Task: inverse folding
């Protein structure tokens, strides 16, 4: 009798501890998600917010035929490729460097390098807009001086260059994340492994390839997942630098959703984009977890 | 991170050609990090004409009018709004996520694993995917243009990450402590309040700093749920200023400097905690 009461008491206490959490989550996370999905099937305008007309999958068909949709896919693929290749690789490289120098210097540099991550993206976007701006931006000026006139214009106003501007700024802000994560993983590798390698005559580079790299697989996988989720979530930097422009050349799902819902006032279509994003996020996470669970087993 | 007495065999200790290259690389990277901030700082003290003539030189005189104009435009009010919203949200998150993390790490109950997965699944949901229903929801409850609206949103979306990380931290606190206390008549709440919370202070601090930074910089909800300029937090206000002032760069850069100053100061004081918040989350995965 005594033990049953105890268990029941434990269960009840646990549920009580969890009530606030689930109150918030259900009301402000799960319900809105369901609502977004439901509303994606309706024609729903901001100006007549209480009226909805059921249109089935019309919003989806319209979205898939929308040329901006293709542009978004192209943009996000480019951004994702850049994030994985540039950010994770460069992050890995710098992590390796930092792991190999004395810990006091390493700590100082680590603190310095992590700074861009904590700065508000809107501020970052604004100052980089200045750096890319026509005539006085540092980057166009630089190219003017070295004579590459094609790049000596305002980057963010150019249909082709604007996306590169976004990629560079995202790099500046986000590359410290894989760097710090990989460094943390590296620092968890026991020194004895390296000693053993040294005794076998391995040089620094061989130590890195044969000891460090295999043990980092899991963290590299995590960094890739974070990079992909980040790509889909990309909003603040783009919105503060280009708003998805010029034209729609730098639209992401996030910025286009804002545009559709709050500037074109088409809430139903906005929700459709939201659903696409949910599905993508979910799929990507699943696929990547699969892939790299397999790898670590091997 | 443990400081081991044994220095890793492979650390570079001597000054070699290799180490010179390495440190040059690192210093260059550090300059790359500071360059935009430095540029903003220089530009914010310039006259309008000066920034077009010599954008990257040291200003001829410290010209404060830009900052005065920015302050007059109400930036301080926006910063105070941000501070208020961040503080309130963070405190609420502290209690809700730590109590949930306690339940997940120290208590056993039916459905524990499923509920945990559900709770942290919220992390996968991009914020902007739900702004539309949030807007409508807040509209229905007449909460548009209130701080409460965004506080509710911020708490909800910060809970999954916080719970995930804190559960990891709390599970390293031995259950025996709680059990001993319960034998002495302590309730579960008592264990939470008097034992768990004090012991996990540093972990909680790291997570909260991470969360607070995100809330301070948050744009999507703040932009959509608050239209009243005097109630706006800093990020949407800055967007508003950027659009208003367009190419009046000294003004824009002054706003940027004001916005990042408090964070930078806080960051350099507490840097290790910021970083810990991030690595804690990832290493637990």
Result:
């Amino acid at each position: 009798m005594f033990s049953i009461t105890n268990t029941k008491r434990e269960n009840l206490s646990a549920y009580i501890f969890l009530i606030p959490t689930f109150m918030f989550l259900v009301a402000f996370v799960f319900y809105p998600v369901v609502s977004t999905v439901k509303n994606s099937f309706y024609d729903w305008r901001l100006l007549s917010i209480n009226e909805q007309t059921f249109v089935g999958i019309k919003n989806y068909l319209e979205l898939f035929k929308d040329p901006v949709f293709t542009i978004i896919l192209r943009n996000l693929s480019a951004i994702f490729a850049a994030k994985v290749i540039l950010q994770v690789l460069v992050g890995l490289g710098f992590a390796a460097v930092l792991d190999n120098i004395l810990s006091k210097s390493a700590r100082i540099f680590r603190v310095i390098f992590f700074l861009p991550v904590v700065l508000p993206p809107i501020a970052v976007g604004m100052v980089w807009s200045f750096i890319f701006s026509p005539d006085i931006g540092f980057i166009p000026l630089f190219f003017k001086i070295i004579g590459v006139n094609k790049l000596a214009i305002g980057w963010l106003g150019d249909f082709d260059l604007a996306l590169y501007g976004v990629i560079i700024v995202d790099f500046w802000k986000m590359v410290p994340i894989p760097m710090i994560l990989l460094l943390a993983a590296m620092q968890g590798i026991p020194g004895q492994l390296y000693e053993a390698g040294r005794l076998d005559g391995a040089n620094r580079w061989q130590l890195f390839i044969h000891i460090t790299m295999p043990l980092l697989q899991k963290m590299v996988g995590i960094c890739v997942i974070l990079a992909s989720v980040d790509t889909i979530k990309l909003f603040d930097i783009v919105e503060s630098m280009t708003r998805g422009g010029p034209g729609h050349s730098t639209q992401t799902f996030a910025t286009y959703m804002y545009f559709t819902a709050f500037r074109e006032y088409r809430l139903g279509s906005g929700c459709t984009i939201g659903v696409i994003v949910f599905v993508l996020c979910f799929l990507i996470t699943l696929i990547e977890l699969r892939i790299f669970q397999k790898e670590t087993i091997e | 991170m443990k400081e081991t007495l044994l220095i890793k065999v492979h650390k570079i200790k001597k000054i070699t050609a290799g180490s010179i290259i390495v440190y040059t690389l690192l210093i260059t990277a550090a300059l790359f990090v500071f360059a935009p901030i430095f540029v903003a700082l220089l530009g914010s003290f310039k006259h309008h004409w000066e920034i077009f003539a010599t954008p990257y030189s040291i200003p001829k005189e410290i010209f404060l009018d830009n900052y005065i104009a920015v302050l007059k435009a109400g930036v301080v009010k926006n910063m105070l709004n941000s501070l208020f919203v961040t503080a309130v949200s963070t405190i609420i998150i502290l209690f809700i996520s730590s109590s949930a993390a306690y339940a997940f790490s120290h208590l056993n109950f039916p459905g524990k694993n499923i509920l945990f997965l559900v709770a942290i699944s919220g992390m996968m949901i991009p914020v902007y995917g739900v702004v539309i229903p949030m807007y409508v929801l807040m509209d229905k409850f007449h909460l548009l243009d209130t701080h409460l609206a965004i506080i509710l949103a911020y708490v909800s979306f910060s809970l999954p990450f916080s719970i995930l990380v804190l559960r990891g931290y709390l599970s390293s606190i031995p259950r025996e402590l709680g059990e001993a206390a319960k034998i002495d008549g302590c309730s579960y709440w008592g264990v939470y309040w008097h034992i768990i919370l004090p012991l996990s202070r540093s972990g909680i601090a790291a997570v909260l700093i991470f969360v607070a930074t995100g809330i301070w910089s948050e744009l999507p909800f703040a932009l959509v749920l608050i239209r009243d300029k005097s109630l706006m937090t800093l990020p949407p206000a800055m967007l508003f200023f950027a659009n208003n002032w367009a190419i009046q760069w000294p003004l824009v850069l002054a706003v940027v400097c004001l916005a990042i100053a408090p964070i930078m100061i806080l960051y350099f004081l507490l840097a290790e905690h910021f970083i810990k918040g991030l690595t804690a989350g990832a290493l637990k995965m």
Chain B is about 75% helix and 0% strand.
